[in-house]
Amino acid sequence: MEVSDTDDDYPMARKKPRKDDPTAALKEENDSLRCQLEAYKNEVDLVKVDLKLELEQKDKQLKMCQQTLQGMQQQLLDAKRKQGEEELRVLELQARLKAKQTKEKQTKEKETKEGEEVKDKEETEGEVDTTDSLLLLSSKLSEKEAKLVGLISIFLHVHPFGAGVDYIWSYLQKLDPTLRTSEVETVMARFPSMFLQELSGIGANMERRWVYAGYKNTKPEL
């Protein structure tokens, strides 16, 4: 009897089991990817939160800047309006001042003109009075006295602040060496409407001066 090859004689080599299970590896890789994905999601969420906070802060700053700008614009408008009002007020005051100055100038010119007219009238009346007085008195004066009155009037006319009797006499003596001081004073005292005696100075420096008063006389009112 032939001995056949049996399984006992030649045992079949069994397949050696694999140490790595494909399913387990895939599961492990899947879990790793899932963890990474969750980490990415968490990181994205954190970035979103940070961006949101930053955007909110920027938005607040922008609103504050807008409010500040609006306030500055309002202040600028108020300042321009106030400046316009001030300019109008200045123009109004300048116009009023100019009108007032013009009125004052016209009033002053009018007063000056009236004063000159009154002065001319008074001088004319004074000249008439003096002429009338001289004509009236010339009939009562001697030739020497009339000459003295004329010379004294001329002398005092060029000395509007007056002069002492000695000064007047020294001038007249050159024309009439025989003339005395008392004669000069007597002639001037006889005509108070033409010659006035005034006091000037203080204390020991006080002196008597004669002034020409022909133009100070006016006709009495009727």
Automatic annotation (TrEMBL):
It comes from the Eukaryota. Residues 18-30, 101-122 have a biased composition (Basic and acidic residues). Residues 1-30, 99-126 are annotated as: Disordered. Pfam families: ENOX1 (PF23267). Residues 1-10 have a biased composition (Acidic residues). Residues 24-111 form the Ecto-NOX disulfide-thiol exchanger 1/2 domain. One of its GO terms (cellular component) is external side of plasma membrane. GO terms for molecular function: oxidoreductase activity. GO terms for biological process: ultradian rhythm. This is Ecto-NOX disulfide-thiol exchanger 1/2 domain-containing protein. It comes from Graphocephala atropunctata.
